[in-house]
Amino acid sequence: MTKVKVGIVQMSCVKDKTANFQKAAEKIKEAAKKGAQIVCLQELFTSLYFCDKEDYNNFQLAETIPGPSTEILQKIAMENNIVIIASLFEKRTQGIYHNTTVVIDADGTYLGMYRKMHIPDDPAFYEKFYFTPGDLGYKVFETKFSKIGVLICWDQWYPEAARITSLMGAEILFYPTAIGWSTNQDLPTNTEQYNAWQTIQRSHAVANGVHVVSVNRVGIEQNGAMKFWGGSFISNPFGTILYQASHDNEEVIVQEVDTSKTDSYRTHWPFLRDRRIDSYQPITKRFIDEN
Length: 291
Hints:
Blueprint: E1 3-10, H1 17-33, E2 38-41, H2 68-80, E3 83-93, E4 96-104, E5 110-115, E6 140-142, E7 147-150, H3 159-167, E8 172-176, E9 180-182, H4 187-208, E10 211-215, E11 218-221, E12 226-229, E13 233-235, E14 241-244, E15 251-258, H5 261-268
Parallel strand pairs: 1-2, 2-3, 7-8, 8-10
Antiparallel strand pairs: 1-15, 3-4, 4-5, 6-7, 9-12, 10-13, 11-12, 13-14
Helix pairs in contact: 1-2, 3-4
């Protein structure tokens, strides 16, 4: 299949994990009724974004994968004939936790997981306290409707991640995300940050000739200190925005994408053809000293 209907679930969250999961489940079903074939949820959709502080109690939010959540999602996927991309807080074993996204095929088959590779540590985003960096490498998943690549939030700033996943054959890149503005910031700063966030991901679409789907949360969290900016979007392989969600509202949207356009864009703008792979060894260094 080259024409694929992609569903985005952009939603706000509350403290109650069960309520968040139930809301997400209903919105997945809503997307399916609208014709979605692949549905992507935002990063860590079962909870508030808990990485705003270093709190050992938050490890209780983690779960095994596969586990109860994946079992429910498998049933939903099978009953609605949809692929589900779901971001979960994984407890791998005692003392080892990951920020992980699972992919479930339209027949309910658990296809596997991707563990977030790039882990941030910034004010209100203290993810290094919680998450061990991913050790599965970059991943693609052959689903019923498309071969997809999944990366997570902070991964979206790294062209290397998008490039490798695209070279592995991904036809669409999905980015479950949780990113927002401090409520103390001014509008110009907010605008600049959002534009940078969207631009870097659109550049991945252009450089690799693939569709990009980025799904963010909305709502005020962290006792009013953080406004998650929503703005989920879908880009075609040349960076054109096919759909952009609002910064404030929950949304369930379905957008058709045509993955056959990848060949056309890559033929007319042959970035992959002209790559000088013989010259890229320095990229594996942390920094290149001139001396």
